[in-house]
């Protein structure tokens, strides 16, 4: 339930801050905003993976919420400004790529990392207990080695109960450890994005600055719309 509250809180931050996107973009440019968001998202995710107290989690969630606020609309805005000829097809392709990446790579990848670290921690601390709670099928992700993981049917109830035995608490702690490690590793995604946005900022500054590509009215010669920087 506390995790859901963090999700609701960060979504609330997104809802409020998106009303103020215009003035921010005018001051630091769309790419500058994307770079700042990527840095904040990376910091927030990594901090969430290390936080154990309520205040630290609140501050980390705030930074992460601010960081992820402008990713989606600003990225689509950049695509529409730089590739206006693509129209709705280009925007749809970029949006679909993002959603497919999150569904086919993001969610399974995060789950794999959590299984890898939670299973590894439990197996090193209590091998017999690990055998008892191990998943019947190994977990796989892309080309990475198989990891045994823990049986979700047996582990999930432990996360919701309070009257746990010593062994059950050890299992739950291993799962929590795996979740924290998955957040830390996931922070690499916005960190890599920050490097990419910074490279784009440097590129555009070297070539005269970031400018939206505009389509003029049909030219007399051939009636072809020409992009103008």
Description:
The protein is mainly alpha-helical and 229 residues long. The chain has nine helices and four strands; from the N terminus they run ααααααββαααββ. The chain has helices spanning 2-17, 21-50, 54-69, 71-82, 87-125, 127-133, 152-160, 166-186, 188-206; strands at 139-141, 144-147, 214-215, 227-228. The chain has a two-stranded antiparallel ribbon with strand order 1-2. Strands 3-4 form a two-stranded antiparallel sheet. Strand 1 (139-141) and strand 2 (144-147) form a beta hairpin. Helix 2 crosses helix 4 (71-82). The longest helix has 39 residues, at 87-125. The N and C termini lie far apart (50 Å). Residues 219-224 have low confidence and may be disordered.
For the largest sheet, list the strands in their spatial order: 1-2
User: Helix/strand/pairing class, anyone?
Assistant: mainly alpha
Query: Which percent bin holds the helix content?
Result: over 70%
Q: Mean of residue pLDDT? A: 88
- Bin the strand percentage: under 5%
Q: What's the end-to-end separation, in Å? A: 50 Å
Summed up, the helix count is: 9
Low-confidence stretches: 219-224
Largest sheet: 2 strands, antiparallel
The beta-strand count equals: 4
Q: What is the oligomer described by this structure?
A: single chain
Using the CA coordinates, give the radius of gyration.
Answer: 22 Å
Order of helices and strands: HHHHHHEEHHHEE
C-alpha geometry: elongated
Explain briefly what this protein structure is.
α2 (21-50) packs across α4 and α5 (87-125) runs antiparallel to α8. The chain is elongated.
